[in-house]
């Protein structure tokens, strides 16, 4: 398996990272899905012409990051990310992932000021053509895409929204600071992803997803409407209620 060495600021990429990045990229792209048995240490060593000790370091680090699970005498498996869960409370996805001891990463796809369609304006109680802020962000847990966030924001409630660095702070965290939540309305459905969502999540158009739509208010004013699309194989929505 011929691969071109990546360069780091201090020189060529360490040998074990060839294996680690190969496995990470394969999991992120869906080549290997949760529960799949990964190539053995011997197979990886032969493919990359590396020692088993070097390959073992790559597998050890992926295990520590929660991306794979190793069973002695059997092999290495892709971690069961479908155990990831959320509740119906409005929580920051970064905090949810951090609470599981995993690494969160947000990649911004688009951020712009748009004119509201008639349907969008009605949702916010505005006139058609009124300005709205629009963002599309993909959230990753340990390098695996688990959520595509397609969000509209009322500029009157968050005038500086477009100036935020969403690689450092999530929209939820920012909006809860500038427009304290007073009400939230949800719809939840199992459906297929839109074309862009499938592309950003690295899944097929036929792969089922869990889609949460949420409209939140602050002091009676609609602040944000968001569509959260999760690959069904990587996400479980759960919660509890008590009278």
TrEMBL record:
User: Which GO BP terms apply?
Assistant: L-histidine metabolic process; negative regulation of DNA-templated transcription
Presence of the UniProt keyword Ribosomal protein in the record: no
Q: Which NCBIfam families match?
A: his_ut_repres
Q: Which InterPro entries does the UniProt record give?
A: Bact_HTH_transcr_reg (IPR050679), Chorismate_lyase_/UTRA_dom_sf (IPR028978), His_ut_repres (IPR010248), Tscrpt_reg_HTH_GntR (IPR000524), UTRA (IPR011663), WH-like_DNA-bd_sf (IPR036388), WH_DNA-bd_sf (IPR036390)
* Gene3D superfamilies xref list: Chorismate lyase-like, Winged helix-like DNA-binding domain superfamily/Winged helix DNA-binding domain
Alphabetically sorted, this entry's keywords are: DNA-binding, Transcription, Transcription regulation
Q: What is this protein's record name?
A: Histidine utilization repressor
This protein's record includes keyword Glycosyltransferase: no
Output the Gene Ontology terms for molecular function.
DNA binding; DNA-binding transcription factor activity
């Amino acid at each position: 398996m011929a691969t071109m060495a990546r360069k780091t600021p201090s020189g060529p990429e360490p040998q074990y990272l060839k294996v680690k990045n190969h496995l990470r990229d394969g999991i992120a792209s869906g080549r290997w899905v949760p529960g799949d048995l990964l190539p053995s240490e011997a197979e990886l060593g032969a493919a990359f012409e590396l020692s088993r000790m070097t390959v073992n370091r790559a597998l050890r680090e992926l295990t520590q990051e929660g991306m794979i699970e190793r069973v002695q005498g059997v092999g290495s498996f892709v971690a069961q990310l479908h155990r990831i869960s959320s509740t119906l409370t409005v929580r920051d996805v970064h905090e949810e992932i951090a609470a599981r001891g995993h690494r969160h990463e947000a990649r911004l796809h688009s951020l712009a000021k748009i004119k509201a369609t008639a349907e969008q304006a009605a949702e916010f109680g505005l006139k058609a053509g009124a300005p709205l802020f629009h963002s599309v962000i993909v959230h990753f847990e340990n390098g695996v895409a688990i959520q595509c966030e397609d969000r509209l924001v009322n500029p009157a409630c968050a005038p500086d929204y477009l100036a935020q660095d969403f690689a450092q702070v999530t929209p939820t965290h920012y909006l809860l600071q500038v427009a304290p939540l007073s009400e939230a309305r949800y719809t939840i459905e199992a459906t297929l992803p839109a074309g862009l969502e499938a592309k950003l999540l690295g899944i097929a158009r036929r792969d089922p997803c869990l889609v949460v739509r949420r409209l939140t208010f602050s002091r009676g004013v609609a602040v944000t409407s968001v569509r959260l699309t999760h690959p069904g194989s990587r996400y479980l929505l759960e919660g509890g209620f008590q009278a």
